[in-house]
Design brief:
7 helices, mainly alpha, about 5% strand
Protein backbone atom coordinates (compact mmCIF):
# COMPACT_ATOMS: atom_id res chain seq x y z
CA UNK A 1 0.00 0.00 0.00
CA UNK A 2 1.34 3.42 -0.99
CA UNK A 3 0.89 6.39 1.33
CA UNK A 4 1.72 10.07 0.81
CA UNK A 5 2.11 13.04 3.16
CA UNK A 6 2.25 16.64 1.95
CA UNK A 7 4.07 19.16 4.15
CA UNK A 8 4.33 22.86 3.40
CA UNK A 9 7.51 24.94 3.59
CA UNK A 10 7.14 25.21 7.38
CA UNK A 11 6.87 21.44 7.77
CA UNK A 12 3.16 21.52 8.57
CA UNK A 13 1.12 18.64 7.22
CA UNK A 14 -1.40 19.98 4.70
CA UNK A 15 -2.58 16.79 3.03
CA UNK A 16 -2.37 13.04 2.99
CA UNK A 17 -3.56 10.21 0.82
CA UNK A 18 -3.24 6.53 0.10
CA UNK A 19 -4.20 4.05 -2.58
CA UNK A 20 -7.44 2.90 -0.98
CA UNK A 21 -8.49 0.20 -3.43
CA UNK A 22 -7.46 -1.52 -6.64
CA UNK A 23 -8.18 0.66 -9.63
CA UNK A 24 -8.80 3.71 -7.46
CA UNK A 25 -6.99 7.08 -7.56
CA UNK A 26 -3.29 6.94 -6.78
CA UNK A 27 -2.03 8.10 -3.40
CA UNK A 28 -0.19 11.11 -4.85
CA UNK A 29 -3.33 12.37 -6.58
CA UNK A 30 -5.42 11.99 -3.43
CA UNK A 31 -2.84 13.77 -1.27
CA UNK A 32 -2.43 16.67 -3.70
CA UNK A 33 -6.19 17.02 -4.01
CA UNK A 34 -6.47 17.15 -0.22
CA UNK A 35 -3.74 19.80 0.03
CA UNK A 36 -5.27 21.96 -2.68
CA UNK A 37 -3.57 25.31 -3.16
CA UNK A 38 -1.32 24.64 -0.16
CA UNK A 39 0.50 22.02 -2.23
CA UNK A 40 2.39 24.77 -4.06
CA UNK A 41 6.01 24.67 -2.91
CA UNK A 42 5.27 21.78 -0.54
CA UNK A 43 7.20 18.53 -0.13
CA UNK A 44 5.75 15.07 -0.74
CA UNK A 45 6.79 12.12 1.42
CA UNK A 46 5.96 8.86 -0.32
CA UNK A 47 6.17 5.26 0.82
CA UNK A 48 7.03 3.29 -2.30
CA UNK A 49 5.36 0.05 -3.25
CA UNK A 50 7.95 -2.73 -3.64
CA UNK A 51 8.52 -3.96 -7.17
CA UNK A 52 6.81 -7.25 -7.91
CA UNK A 53 9.95 -9.21 -8.62
CA UNK A 54 8.31 -12.23 -10.20
CA UNK A 55 6.18 -10.10 -12.50
CA UNK A 56 9.25 -8.18 -13.65
CA UNK A 57 11.19 -11.41 -14.20
CA UNK A 58 8.30 -12.88 -16.15
CA UNK A 59 8.14 -9.83 -18.44
CA UNK A 60 11.91 -9.96 -18.94
CA UNK A 61 11.82 -13.67 -19.82
CA UNK A 62 9.03 -13.05 -22.32
CA UNK A 63 11.00 -10.34 -24.10
CA UNK A 64 14.19 -12.42 -24.07
CA UNK A 65 12.33 -15.42 -25.47
CA UNK A 66 10.76 -13.29 -28.17
CA UNK A 67 14.13 -11.74 -29.09
CA UNK A 68 15.92 -15.11 -29.33
CA UNK A 69 13.19 -16.75 -31.41
CA UNK A 70 12.80 -13.80 -33.78
CA UNK A 71 16.59 -13.65 -34.15
CA UNK A 72 16.76 -17.32 -35.15
CA UNK A 73 13.81 -16.82 -37.50
CA UNK A 74 15.59 -13.92 -39.19
CA UNK A 75 18.65 -16.12 -39.78
CA UNK A 76 16.40 -18.75 -41.36
CA UNK A 77 15.08 -16.06 -43.69
CA UNK A 78 18.59 -15.23 -44.86
CA UNK A 79 19.34 -18.92 -45.32
CA UNK A 80 16.26 -19.24 -47.54
CA UNK A 81 17.46 -16.31 -49.64
CA UNK A 82 20.87 -17.94 -50.16
CA UNK A 83 19.24 -21.23 -51.17
CA UNK A 84 16.88 -19.43 -53.52
CA UNK A 85 19.87 -17.81 -55.21
CA UNK A 86 21.52 -21.21 -55.48
CA UNK A 87 18.45 -22.59 -57.24
CA UNK A 88 18.89 -20.16 -60.10
CA UNK A 89 22.28 -21.54 -61.08
CA UNK A 90 21.81 -25.21 -60.25
CA UNK A 91 21.23 -28.16 -62.53
CA UNK A 92 17.62 -29.27 -63.10
CA UNK A 93 18.17 -32.43 -61.03
CA UNK A 94 19.12 -30.36 -57.99
CA UNK A 95 16.49 -27.67 -58.45
CA UNK A 96 13.68 -29.77 -56.95
CA UNK A 97 15.70 -30.59 -53.83
CA UNK A 98 16.71 -26.98 -53.30
CA UNK A 99 13.13 -25.79 -53.80
CA UNK A 100 11.98 -28.27 -51.16
CA UNK A 101 14.63 -27.01 -48.72
CA UNK A 102 13.60 -23.40 -49.36
CA UNK A 103 9.94 -24.28 -48.68
CA UNK A 104 10.85 -26.06 -45.44
CA UNK A 105 12.98 -23.16 -44.22
CA UNK A 106 10.23 -20.67 -45.06
CA UNK A 107 7.69 -22.79 -43.17
CA UNK A 108 10.05 -22.97 -40.20
CA UNK A 109 10.46 -19.22 -40.31
CA UNK A 110 6.69 -18.64 -40.26
CA UNK A 111 6.36 -21.04 -37.33
CA UNK A 112 9.16 -19.18 -35.55
CA UNK A 113 7.29 -15.88 -35.90
CA UNK A 114 4.18 -17.42 -34.38
CA UNK A 115 6.17 -18.97 -31.53
CA UNK A 116 7.78 -15.59 -30.92
CA UNK A 117 4.30 -14.07 -30.82
CA UNK A 118 3.37 -16.37 -27.91
CA UNK A 119 6.14 -14.64 -25.94
CA UNK A 120 5.22 -11.21 -27.29
CA UNK A 121 1.56 -11.45 -26.21
CA UNK A 122 2.20 -11.56 -22.41
CA UNK A 123 4.74 -8.73 -22.69
CA UNK A 124 2.24 -6.61 -24.64
CA UNK A 125 -0.44 -7.43 -22.06
CA UNK A 126 1.78 -6.19 -19.22
CA UNK A 127 2.64 -3.03 -21.18
CA UNK A 128 -1.01 -2.02 -21.58
CA UNK A 129 -1.95 -3.31 -18.11
CA UNK A 130 0.56 -0.95 -16.50
CA UNK A 131 -0.82 1.93 -18.56
CA UNK A 132 -4.30 0.93 -17.38
CA UNK A 133 -3.20 0.93 -13.74
CA UNK A 134 -1.27 4.21 -14.02
CA UNK A 135 -4.00 6.14 -15.89
CA UNK A 136 -1.26 7.89 -17.87
CA UNK A 137 -3.32 7.31 -21.00
CA UNK A 138 -7.13 7.05 -21.19
CA UNK A 139 -8.22 3.85 -19.51
CA UNK A 140 -10.45 2.93 -22.46
CA UNK A 141 -7.39 2.99 -24.72
CA UNK A 142 -5.34 0.91 -22.31
CA UNK A 143 -8.20 -1.57 -21.83
CA UNK A 144 -8.48 -1.99 -25.60
CA UNK A 145 -4.75 -2.74 -25.71
CA UNK A 146 -5.11 -5.31 -22.93
CA UNK A 147 -7.96 -7.07 -24.76
CA UNK A 148 -6.09 -6.97 -28.08
CA UNK A 149 -2.99 -8.47 -26.43
CA UNK A 150 -5.05 -11.31 -24.99
CA UNK A 151 -6.37 -12.11 -28.47
CA UNK A 152 -2.85 -12.42 -29.91
CA UNK A 153 -2.00 -15.57 -27.94
CA UNK A 154 -4.78 -17.77 -29.39
CA UNK A 155 -4.13 -16.23 -32.81
CA UNK A 156 -0.47 -17.27 -32.70
CA UNK A 157 -1.27 -20.75 -31.37
CA UNK A 158 -4.06 -21.15 -33.91
CA UNK A 159 -1.69 -20.28 -36.75
CA UNK A 160 0.70 -22.98 -35.52
CA UNK A 161 -1.92 -25.69 -35.08
CA UNK A 162 -4.12 -24.85 -38.07
CA UNK A 163 -1.47 -23.73 -40.54
CA UNK A 164 -3.84 -24.12 -43.50
CA UNK A 165 -6.02 -21.33 -42.04
CA UNK A 166 -3.11 -19.10 -41.03
CA UNK A 167 -4.00 -16.42 -43.59
CA UNK A 168 -7.49 -16.07 -42.11
CA UNK A 169 -6.38 -16.34 -38.48
CA UNK A 170 -3.83 -13.58 -39.15
CA UNK A 171 -6.67 -11.04 -39.08
CA UNK A 172 -6.69 -11.52 -35.32
CA UNK A 173 -3.62 -9.26 -35.20
CA UNK A 174 -5.64 -6.27 -36.43
CA UNK A 175 -6.95 -5.11 -33.00
CA UNK A 176 -3.43 -5.05 -31.53
CA UNK A 177 -2.12 -3.26 -34.61
CA UNK A 178 -4.68 -0.49 -34.06
CA UNK A 179 -3.95 -0.44 -30.31
CA UNK A 180 -0.21 -0.02 -30.90
CA UNK A 181 -0.68 2.68 -33.55
CA UNK A 182 -3.25 4.67 -31.55
CA UNK A 183 -1.18 4.46 -28.36
CA UNK A 184 1.99 5.43 -30.22
CA UNK A 185 0.38 8.51 -31.78
CA UNK A 186 -1.22 9.44 -28.44
CA UNK A 187 2.14 9.33 -26.66
CA UNK A 188 3.86 11.30 -29.45
CA UNK A 189 1.20 14.01 -29.78
CA UNK A 190 -0.52 14.23 -26.39
CA UNK A 191 2.00 12.52 -24.12
CA UNK A 192 1.15 11.09 -20.72
CA UNK A 193 -1.69 12.80 -18.98
CA UNK A 194 -0.62 15.73 -16.76
CA UNK A 195 -0.91 15.52 -13.01
CA UNK A 196 -3.93 17.87 -13.05
CA UNK A 197 -6.00 15.28 -14.89
CA UNK A 198 -5.16 12.60 -12.34
CA UNK A 199 -5.88 15.00 -9.47
CA UNK A 200 -9.21 15.82 -11.10
CA UNK A 201 -10.13 12.15 -11.08
CA UNK A 202 -9.19 11.90 -7.41
CA UNK A 203 -11.43 14.87 -6.54
CA UNK A 204 -14.28 13.39 -8.57
CA UNK A 205 -13.88 10.06 -6.80
Amino acid sequence: MIGVLVRDEDGVEVGEGWHAHYGGPHAEAVALAAAGAQARGATLYVTLEPVKKRLAQFALCCRLGEAVIIGVTSMLGFAALHLHAAVQGSEPAQTGQLDTMVSLIQAAGESGLNIGATFFAPASFLFFYLFYRSRYIPRSMAAFGVAASIIVLPVALGSLIFAEYAATIFYGWIPLMFAEIITGFWLMIVGIRPAQAVVGEARAG
